[in-house]
Amino acid sequence: MEKSAPLDSALIARFAGIVGEHYALTAEADIAPYVVERRGLWAGRTGLVLRPGSVDEVSRILRLATDTRTPIVPQGGNTGLVGGQMPDRTGREVVLSLSRLDRIRELDPLSNTITAEAGVVLEKLHEAAEAAGRLFPLSLASQGSCQIGGNLSSNAGGTGVLAYGNSRELCMGVEVVLPTGEVLDDLRKLKKDNTGYDLKNLFVGAEGTLGVITAAVLKLFPKPKGREVAWAGVSSPPDALRLFGLAEDRAGAALTAFELIGATPLSFAEKHMPGGAVRPLTGEWPWHVLMEISSGRSAEDALALVEDILTAGLEAGMVGDAAIAQSLAQAAAFWKLREFLSDAQRPEGASIKHDISVPVASIPEFIARAAKAVASVSPEARVVCFGHMGDGNLHYNISQPVGGDSDAFLSIYRVMNKAVHDVVREFNGSISAEHGIGQLKRDELIATAPPIAIDLMRRIRAAFDPAGIMNPGKVI
User: Quick check: 1 pLDDT over 50?
Assistant: First the structure.
């Protein structure tokens, strides 16, 4: 890519003329929320944030950006965890916020689809589906602020992947503005369509490097008639894996979540949760499982299934103790505790995070071997392991030693990453299960992926964006 020209006042005026001065932010105070992300790892600079209100405005912005070779950084709710939504420090990159594209264009309960613009907040999608007697199952801790365009661009996962799949599997069609300003309208509701390449899946997970997703057709599901949430204490990851196998055998598709939680992250959450946290079990357990059963038949069926699973688990010695939520409020409290695990690390000091996946059957062995790898780098560091055991995705995070120095701990970030990711690769796993690549993992992806895979990705990127304006420096 040729070196981009600085954002001079004349160029800013041309972009502002597309969206209107009110939606072209240039004041430092107005820009500030768009150039710092939630972890504080990536602080960027820009002279301009554009907030288009229509697909036509997005098209005109990208056409002008290509003509002037102005780098564009698409941004949704700014909840990404790998720096994919952040501009660099040059000040030349323009942030394109999709937050004003926030209409739900259609909800079709017979087709079980909802068509939503990129800026629709995930929680709003949940509410719209609920009002229609349907379920949109993508569930994330950030759902009150993340936007569906960003969810699709990063192929977000969450707690519902076990039963419903990740964002890619929930997407039936997309509307995308290409870097040239051309609009691809592929907003189809078809369950079967074999007419050539599946173009939508090039954009889902591309992190804004191939184009800008402006709308999508998403799958809805019938609301479960019965839902039960249970918390179990187990002695080890192998016991948790055995319980997962039992739950799958007994519940089948009704098993909609199976989360593994270590004692350390749970203790952090209990210590730091605002308003306090209620411990689900009275005893101390080294590992915990949060399980959800959703029945399409009845509440009684869901309860019978979870009771059957836990009884069998207790009798077989897989489970040491268990509690079934006795109300909707208690079920919500169990999930709130799970969702707070990431934020609970912050008060404990610096943290080195890993969003990995391995085959489900390999999870216990991975946990054991990764712990040894961590100890070889920092013997006093604290392993903070939790995640979606049912689909093989763990958040294998490392918090600094008690009383340690944060800067000193972060200085070993790359060494720790390599130690953990080397173990991941031994199991033919992935170093990015659901957060994306962004800036954080770009260099490691390039260094470790098969050369032909990197070459193909670069060819695809060059074909879609020959001017090199789309989210430079991200992914590859």
Answer: no
3-state secondary structure the chain: CCCCCCCCHHHHHHHHHHHCHHHEECCHHHHHHHCECCCCCCECCECCEECCCCHHHHHHHHHHHHHHCCCEEEECCCCCCCCCCCCCCCECCEEEECCCCCCEEEEECCCCEEEEECCCEHHHHHHHHHHCCEECCCCCCCCCCCEHHHHHHCCCCCCCHHHHCCHHHHEEEEEEECCCCCEEEECCCCCCCCCCCCCHHHHCCCCCCCCEEEEEEEECEECCCEEEEEEEEECCHHHHHHHHHHHHHHHHHHEEEEEEEEHHHHHHHHHHCCCCCCCCCCCCCCEEEEEEEEECCCHHHHHHHHHHHHHHHHHCCCCCEEEECCCHHHHHHHHHHHHCCCHHHHHHCCEECCEEECCHHHHHHHHHHHHHHHHHHCCCCEEEEEEEHHHCEEEEEEECCCCCCHHHHHCCHHHHHHHHHHHHHHCCCECECCCCCCCCCHHHHHHHCCHHHHHHHHHHHHHHCCCCCECCCCCC
Distance CA 208, CA 152 (A): 10
The answer to whether 210 and 202 are in contact (CB under 8 A) is yes
Q: For residue 444, what pLDDT band results from cuts at 50, 70 and 90?
A: confident
Strands 255-262 and 221-222: unpaired
What integer pLDDT is reported at residue 6 of this predicted model? 64
Both tokens of residue 217?
């057709």
Alpha-carbon radius of gyration of the chain: 23
- The label of the residue with tokens 């605002």 reads 274
Distance, in Å, from the CA atom of 299 to the CA atom of 55, rounded to the nearest integer, reads: 44
In the predicted model, what is the mean pLDDT of residues 445-465? 94
Query: Would you state the structure tokens that stand for residue 384, as one six-digit string?
Result: 């903070």
pLDDT attached to residue 3: 46
No. of H helices and E strands in the chain?
17, 19
